Amino acid sequence: GDFRPNGGWGGQGFGPFYGSMTFQGIIPYYYDHLHPGTGVELNHCVYNNMADNPRDKPTRNDKVSGNCRDGYNRPDKHDVCEDCRSRSLGEVVTTHFTLCQKPWECLPQDGDRIQERLCRRFHGEWYRIREDLEVSVWGRRAVDCRGG
Predict the structure, then answer these.
(1) Are 69 and 56 in contact (CB under 8 A)?
(2) pTM for this structure?
């Protein structure tokens, strides 16, 4: 690749920022610089789901409050925004572990809040895929947070 420490991808300013050497920098560079006008916005609840609160006030007892964080002011739609935390695991194609944290760090997600329940499912799926990789490539069972 052509990532430059002070200029990001291609020296075009797609970085430096946190994550700019990875997906968060190369995708904007690809679509905004190399192939302008070809990108499409995907549903962030399906692609890159972060189990984040869609509103600017706390969620209590799985009930959201506040205004949508998506940047749109839609009083005609009563400020409707999707809560990605309600998506089933089968509907999510990719996830982003910033809020749930990396599965291999083995941080507890043992609460009964909506985001913790989804994070547990994300982590479980990560370990399932990781174990499949370890078995198929190295012929061994993966180790999980319990040491097994």
Answers:
(1) yes
(2) 0.78
Could you please report the per-residue DSSP string of the chain?
--EETTTEETTTTB-SSTTTTTHHHHHHIIIIIISTT------TTTEEE----SEEEEEETTEEEEEESSS---GGGTS----GGGS-GGG-SEE--TTT--GGG-----S-SHHHHHHHHHHHHHHHHHHHHIIIIISSPPP-TT--
- Tokens for 47, please give them: 């692609």
Q: Dihedrals φ, ψ of 57, to 5°? A: -125, 160
Q: CA separation (Å) from 50 to 69, 85, 99, 116?
A: 14, 8, 6, 11
pLDDT in tens, 77-111: 667 789 999 999 999 999 999 899 999 999 888 88
